[in-house]
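Anyone? Bumping this.
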Amino acid sequence: MHEYSIVQSLYDAVAAQAAARGGKAVHALRVRIGEMSGVDPGLLDTAWRTFRVRTICEDASLEVQIVAAEWQCSLCGAEVRRGGVLTCAACGAPAKLKQGDEILLDRIVMEVP
Amino acid sequence: MCDSCGCGDTNLVPIDVQQRILSDNERTAMHNRHHFLERSLLAINVMGSPGAGKTAVLEATAKALDGARLIGALAGDLATDNDAQRLNAAGIRAESITTGSACHLDAGMVHHALHHLPWSDLDYLFIENVGNLVCPAVYDLGQAANVVLLAVTEGEDKPLKYPVMFHKADLVLISKIDLLPYLPDISLDRIVESLRRVMPDPKYIAVSARTGQGIAEWMQWLRDQEAGVASGDGHASHHHDHTHV
């Protein structure tokens, strides 16, 4: 259950942005979480609801955009099907993760003076 | 509040941030990595389930090296320092990182522990993570490589259940291989097949800390990694305001 420490880092990042802009209250957050990031979106949301109490994020909703894992051949770039053996069907080279490991704070909506 | 037209609405602004949430940890991990590189120290993040045999493999490693390399360890543990005691008894210079309720090590904990372990003369530093196949995979510690243990007793589909952990592995040690004859339903081939579905280029060694099977191959893998940290130029490129023992 490392989602609480992810939320701590998320809050620190948001608080720093708010301080830099004189923001008074944060209304909404959007994060992008990759399927292969090791972060569980449901647990992240639960952790967020617990953590935000009595902070400038008290009323801030958390939108979690899930980024699907996509693999491609590290040599020829062809798509490699997920769920199967992670080598290229065309040339046999190992696949690499094209997307799906991100843990990203995407957007903040805040109230500014 | 909007003060241009008197409507009373709040000024809400969207800010596109595009910031990696764990960027602080990544910064600290990079700092650790510079420290390791400046000393040509091979740091290995050792992960696996509770009871996969992480400590036993490190004990076998110390025995096999027999003083040929100076090795140290940081042992992450929720509540005890048993692992560090075992490692010290095996001739490894070891320090505990007691995490309390935390399910993983992060770069800051490792950095803090480095202030308590004389490490700068070491050849290898094993960072034995908390026994857990989920959380430790998320946190970079500054290691040169991730080694994940998978005991044959854990079942063939563990890699499929914990794809993130095995995807992050540079090497999988399939441990307790001496028990395979007693596990009629477990096949090494099927374990490797699972690995191939989560690791694009799976590297694995079947080992037994008890019989020594595979340990020579593991020693060779470690020696092969030494070239990657041999540059010794980490120090010039990073600033720090403290000293390490």
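Late reply, but here is one note on the structure posted above: Strands of chain A lie at 25-34, 61-67, 70-73, 79-80, 95-99, 103-111.
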